[in-house]
Amino acid sequence: MEQDNDRQITLEEVEKEILKELRMPEAVGLEPPHLSAEGGNPSRKPFRIKEFDSPRDKEMAVFTHAKKLSEYIFVITEKSPKKLRWSIVSRLQNASVEIVENLYRANFEREEETRIGFQKSAAVGLKILDFYAETARKKQAITIRQTEIIARQISETTRLLNGWVKSTRRNKATP
Fold first, then answer.
1. Complete domains list, the chain, with CATH
2. Of 26, 22, 87, nearest to 52 (Cα)?
3. How far apart (Å, rounded) are the C-alpha atoms in residues 136 and 84?
4. What is the pTM of this model?
5. CA-CA distance, 152 to 170, in Å (whole number)?
6. Which tens digits make up the pLDDT trace of 80-137?
7. Helices (H), the chain
8. Phi and psi (nearest 5°) for 170?
């Protein structure tokens, strides 16, 4: 477990975790069940959200990681206890969406001071999201493994965001 904490989780690993949560064993390299315990149809196509597939255009990595993080949060919180869905779970979901929103606002802003403000808002949002994820774990709305994946994605997104902020400041300094 200690060795596992040192490596960075890749987008492919997050994608596999999302597919596991969606119960798509064939997508993560496992044999598909012929019939599920619920009496499922083996000829039925697997559920796939095409809007969440990797973009074909060159999008900044910070956007891709933030979107995958938000998608993962929505997938794992579908199974949360009903008593927590209107409290910590909705806050967790909203915080993940606000991060992506602030990133887009920063990207479309041409004035550097305003751009840095939106980038800071996204950074604060990542810290708040980490708090909500830890609280959701304590309340057993999500598992320890899910919290670990969220924490790693938050860390990677924060790292990418910090690089973008440094780049923005560097561009501001050079006329």
1. 61-173 (1.20.1440.60)
2. 22
3. 9
4. 0.69
5. 27
6. 777 777 788 889 999 999 999 999 999 998 888 899 999 999 999 999 999 999 999 9
7. 2-6, 11-21, 61-76, 88-108, 112-138, 144-173
8. -65, -45
**Which residues are within 8 A (CB) of 44 and not within 5 positions of it... i.e. 6 or more apart?**
none
Identify which has the larger pLDDT, 20 or 50: 20
Structure tokens at 87: 């409290």
Q: How crowded is the C-beta side of 81, counted as CA atoms within 13 Å? A: 12
By CB neighbour count within 10 A (0-12 exposed, 13-18 middle, 19+ buried), where does 31 fall? Answer: exposed
Q: In this structure, which long-range contacts are made by residues 19-23, counting pairs with CB atoms below 8 Å and at least 24 apart in sequence?
A: 21/72, 21/75, 21/76, 21/78, 21/79, 22/47, 22/75
Q: Each residue of 57-94: pLDDT tens digit?
A: 567 889 999 999 999 999 888 877 777 777 888 899 99
Q: At 3, phi and psi to the nearest 5?
A: -65, -35
Which residues, in sequence order, are CB contacts of 145 under 8 Å at separation 6+?
none
For residue 85, report the phi and psi dihedrals to the nearest 5 degrees: -65, -30
